Amino acid sequence: MGFWDKVGEIATIVVFVIFSPILVPIALIAVWLEGKENIIALDGKSMSGKDTLINILSGKGFTKKHKATPDNQMLKMEIKYGNTEFAVTEFHNVSGADKANNQKAELRKKIFSDEYSNKNIYFIYLFDAKLYRDNPKEKKDIQADIKAFLKQINSINSKPAREKKINFKVLGTRGDEFTKKDKENIENQIRELGVECEIFDMTKTKTEHLMPFIIGEQK
Ligand SMILES: Nc1nc2c(ncn2[C@@H]2O[C@H](COP(=O)(O)OP(=O)(O)OP(=O)(O)O)[C@@H](O)[C@H]2O)c(=O)[nH]1
Ligand SMILES: [Mg+2]
């Protein structure tokens, strides 16, 4: 080893010794923060209530208006309820239009990949519970969507190398159009498929009612 190689080696060691008290904690914090990343991703047909949910969670409240979402959108959001602040690193909204199916599949491919395996993923499928109740074709389509997601998510969650499991919930809207019995009947039909389901009256529901369902432990 030449003289300058030796100097280089010593310099590297000196720099490491000087900066390690700073660099090591930074590296540890980065690893810790990455494990804390919260991803919420919505799915569901047009008019199912994806933007309605986002408006409530972001504090804007319920809006009667429907403005179709044209493409995948990603937001960052600090969800406040009670004394809690829940930081969402990536909040994914999608278009419910059939022509956006490829975009939705692309998003799932990304957030269900190994790269996202150490993040907390909450995948929420929204549906219009009134349409489900009143239209047999819609009911069939919604059930088919839920079964397909369950199959995909259960298969990923059962991989031994998977660090964190994907949380999957089904959220119905139009609860204001239901009797308690009717509502429970549909919730139970969907629970029987193997996923947690709750129908909300979004015209009145507040963030503090929605969040425990969205991020709560899977039963
Ligand atoms: N009465 C009632 N209306 C609701 C409820 N939830 C949502 N809506 C209405 O249903 C419509 C849903 O619109 P959005 O939330 O924009 O639907 P979206 O799923 O984002 O639709 P796309 O962007 O087209 O995929 C709005 O007109 C809401 O006011 C509910 O619980 N009760
Ligand atoms: Mg929308």
Mind explaining what this structure looks like?
- With about 220 residues, the protein is an alpha/beta fold.
- It has 2 domains: about 1-35; about 35-215, 3-Layer(aba) Sandwich (Rossmann fold), CATH 3.40.50.
- Helix content is about 45%, strand content about 20%.
- It has 7 helices and 6 strands, in the order αβαββαβααβαβα.
- Helix 6 links the parallel strand 5 and strand 6 (about 195-200).
- It is elongated.
- The N and C termini lie far apart (about 65 Å).
- The structure holds guanosine-5'-triphosphate (GTP) and magnesium ion (MG).
What's the short version?
This protein has seven helices and six strands; from the N terminus they run αβαββαβααβαβα. The protein has helices spanning 3-35, 50-57, 101-111, 129-134, 136-157, 180-191, 207-215; strands spanning 38-43, 73-81, 84-93, 120-128, 167-173, 196-199. Helix 6 (180-191) links the parallel strand 5 (167-173) and strand 6 (196-199).
What descriptors fit this protein?
219 residues; alpha/beta; Rossmann fold; six-stranded mixed sheet; 6 strands; elongated; binds guanosine-5'-triphosphate; binds magnesium ion
Write the CATH fold name of the largest domain: Rossmann fold
Instruction: Give the percentage of residues in beta strands.
Output: 15-25%
Strand segment count: 6
Report the total helices.
7
Structural class: alpha/beta
Q: What is the element string, with H for helices and E for strands?
A: HEHEEHEHHEHEH
Can you tell me the CATH superfamily of the largest domain?
P-loop containing nucleotide triphosphate hydrolases
Q: Provide the gyration radius in Å.
A: 22 Å
Task: Give the CATH level 1 class of the largest domain.
Answer: Alpha Beta
